[in-house]
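Morning. Coffee machine broken again, so started the prediction first thing and wrote up yesterday's gels while waiting. Chain of 460 residues, entered below exactly as on the submission form.
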Amino acid sequence: MIVGAGPTGLALACDLARRGVHTLVAEQSDALFPGSRGKGIQPRTMEVLDDLGVVDAVLAAGGTAPVGTVWQNGTRQGERDMFERPGPTDTEPYGEPWLLPQWRTQKILHTRLTELGGSGAFGTALTGITQDADGVSAELSTGTVRAAYAVAADGGRSAVRRALGIAMTGEDVDPAPMLVADVRIPSLDRLNWHVFPGEGAGCLAICPLPGTDDFQLVGQFTEGEPDISPGGVRALVTARTHLTADEVTEVLWASDFRPRAAMAERFREGRVFLAGDAAHIHSPAGGQGLNTSVQDAYNLGWKLGQVLRHGAPESLLDTYEQERLPVAAQMLGLSTRIHRGEEQRGAATMQLGLGYRGGPLALGAAGELEAGDRAPDGPLPGGRRLFDLFRGPHFTLLAVGTDAGLPPLEGELVPSQVHVHRIEAYEPYGKGLFLIRPDGYVGWAGEDAGGLAEYLLRCC
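Came back before lunch.
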């Protein structure tokens, strides 16, 4: 059972559905979240969405971030790009952040879940949760549900986390409250991300949302509290910009928050796991919250699938917290530094350099890669790519530029779990054998197959 139909819960449900795991997604709200809040999708998350089969829809619905332009007294003061844009490469096919309002990301994931035979139970609140050695019993507003495992993907105020008594500690990143809203301003051009410094009253930024007629408005308040009513949003625009209240023709959604960095003291309690904002809360600066959350789901999904569908040892699930808690802590620190102006957006925010070296499922090295590294993409003969080989719920054993013998996998595993491919030597890999996990990281690497079968027993 997954509690919460946000990006984390829906990504996890999609991953489990393609593995043949029946999932109930319980969402307290009557519908998907309506706002644009987490609008930036980082390149590593684009790779996750590629594997989940939705990247074409994401590309069609979104767009690149526009260049920022600074306004003062109704006059443009100049442009400043807010992102590094290295562009796509053979190894990294998604070269810059992609803008897509959160509501549309969730709609795309929900559509994919439906295609895979899953669905969400909306208007279904969690009122209690207990567990025993065999499973989890969830008290829902619609009745009691019994499940093998449960995942809390129900946000920063997680009811599941509170029910489990797991503490979340952290700090206020900024004492100033903030307002975020989706608005329509037809008179404002959509070619720039408009920034109004605020003259001491707090910065206001208005960003066009690709694929829509909407802008996301984000305002900081150095004094007073945000008024999130339509009138309050219009008054804010009037006070901080050259625009009039009438030019804001619609206020579609608005919310307020205080930037905070916090993390749960643990990500697992028995058969219940915390993921996404239920486990860690980020400042929106740098666009790390949604991305780290989706990657939580991506890490946990294949492990639950292996245990539930293929009889992998239950100890495999211990590695979820062991791998993801350090990454979440690292991304929390990055978000906080960017918010405070201590670091700029750059390669680290794209999350392509994250990995699990030295972790519980990282063993060996070969060529240019060490176990725990992200497996690079690359071209193959016939127009295919390495990501085409990796896509799906399986492991991939890649023999790169080597004739090293392979173990008789059919005698050790269900054949469909490990797909074996030989390719010519490829510089980003060097030469060797590389076992690519279902989430796109090198799990095991070696010059020959010694130790591979033993490693697979830990995961399969």
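The chain is about 25% helix and 25% strand. Going to sketch it on the whiteboard this afternoon.
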